[in-house]
Amino acid sequence: MKHFKYLVSLSGLVLILFQVQVRADIRYPLIPAPVSLKELPGDFLMDQSVRLDIQTNDERVLGSLHWFSEKIKSLTGLDLQQKKGNKRISIVLLKHNEPSLAKEGYHLKISPQNVLLEANGAEGIFYGLQSILQLLPPANKWAIPAAEITDYPRFGWRGLMLDVSRHFFTKDEVKRFIDEMVRYKFNVFHWHLTDDQGWRIEIKQLPELTRHGGFRVHREGAWGSFLPALEYEKATDGGYYTQDDIKEIVQYAAERFVTILPEIDVPGHSLAFISSYPGLNATKKQFSVNAGWRNTPRDDNALDPSNEEVYVKLDMIFTEVAKLFPNPYIHIGGDEAYKVYWEQSSNCKEFMSKNGLKNADELQSYFIKRLVKILESKGKKLIGWDEILQGGLAPEATVMSWRGMQGGIDAAKMNHEVIMTPWDYVYLDLYQGDPSAEPSTYGMCRLTDSYRFEPVPEGIDEKLILGGQGNLWTESVPTFRHLEYMLWPRSMALAEVYWSPKQSRNWPGFFERLESEFTKLDIADINYARSCYDVVVIPVQESGQSVSLTMTTEAPNLDIYYTFDETNPDLHASKYNGETLYFPPGSSNLKVVSYRGNKPIGKQLKLSKEELTKRSLQQHHVY
Ligand code: ACM
Description:
Blueprint lengths: L35 E10 L4 E5 L4 H18 L10 E7 L12 E5 L3 E6 L2 H14 L7 E9 L5 E7 L7 H12 L5 E5 L1 E2 L2 E2 L8 H4 L3 E2 L20 E2 L4 H13 L3 E8 L4 H6 L31 H17 L4 E5 L6 H5 L1 H9 L5 H18 L3 E5 L12 E4 L4 H8 L4 E3 L2 H4 L20 H5 L13 E8 L7 H8 L2 H10 L7 H18 L10 E7 L5 E7 L5 E5 L10 E2 L5 E2 L6 E8 L2 E2 L4 E4 H9 L6
Helix pairs in contact: 1-2, 3-5, 7-10
Bound molecules: acetamide.
The site of acetamide has 5 residues, from loops.
């Protein structure tokens, strides 16, 4: 989502960061919550006498155990591969397939004497090992609480998308992204490899795509406001993955039971492609690789569906992409194609009349159907964003629904497979707290929005909903540190949505486990947002010019203190008790902060009457 209708302007900002005390005493801090967990007394102490007891020769299990042992060694210094110890962590592949566990489930029995991990296959063992790691307390006394756990996922498709076009992330950063996602049992890495701002995958038959299309001029600041490239300015920002890099990452992901879904975004979002091989758009206008500017009139960044050369080049691209990625699916984008230049082009008009296509939507549908055929010839199936429904959905296509749920509902009603990624629940590039205290972006998707997401709409066959994703677009994400901030903790909420049984959703319970996880992220130096501790101010337009306010917090059981007299609130200021507030005569600003007990815990917000009035009038509320 790039051209969002309602941008949020920033009001005054006061940002005070406090050291926050979090509770780390949750005994079973598993995220996502397992299907069933029987709490038992006692702990399995991880010490010198613990060893792995491996009852399988399965290569993939052995690989996971190597990975697990290394992790344990780096956390605790203990060597699980030693042979002498009398306390065992036994790893067993079940001889008789247990249907309830399916491919990814596991049984985990932890007693003070030993740990038994059983599964049908290597995936289940891997997820059981992740659960053991999560049960390890943050430091020093490595006591895993006794329990009996049975666990398996609700959905087989549990994805996270990363846009590496708007900002490039290195091979090592991509690996780190994968490492972080598997802790929460995600299993699909959707890799958005191409867009207007950079082409990131080496295509040997089309070297200009990366030599030229992989780089743009340097711009820093607020995305969307930048000046276009000057005539002699060098394109120095960016990068790309060689095919060897891609193979390495595919292998790395596979060892962690992650499938990579590559996305080549066409026919829109193709400026880097068009800039590298001019003449492929309807206007035949040449452009620089976009560095975050918005031109008027709009750049013609869409491939021309009436131009055969477009299909010749796409065939070359998908031939190489198909060989690099074992995934049966390839994502072809299909979103936000700007069709006005098609409607104006004599070539397109002639092509449409020759092929009996009534309008630009049908021209787009023609293009997508050609891609289905191209992918089929490489043994692959097509996934596209929900705009591929426009003009008639290609048979066999799978729909990734992002503009809401409706595209997914329409596709499922036609018996197509669907992956649900509606922006208001899963777009990780949006604000996750009050816009006045967050890095600039657009729209709103709070942690609680992600946590209450239900991927299966009423009346739709659950079997057609493969699962869902969190999508991280990176227009305003220039660093890996900020990437983490946007990813966590919202993706933990989504991990629970996609893995855990629907009926086990429990916000206060999740929040306790989340705070325990925060402590571990601090130790691991993984960045995450604490915006869920901030106050949520809800403005409502009253008759006349006045605005009324109510306030809440996402984190349970916090106190809210506020002022209208310009002083900074603390626990001696007015305490909010759920009433409706109005700006007192003469006052211009609300200042508000959250406390847990006698300690401030959220950022202090300063919101002007003007800003809150403006928000109250917005059709889509952003608060
Ligand atoms: C999208 O956000 N344009 C898929």
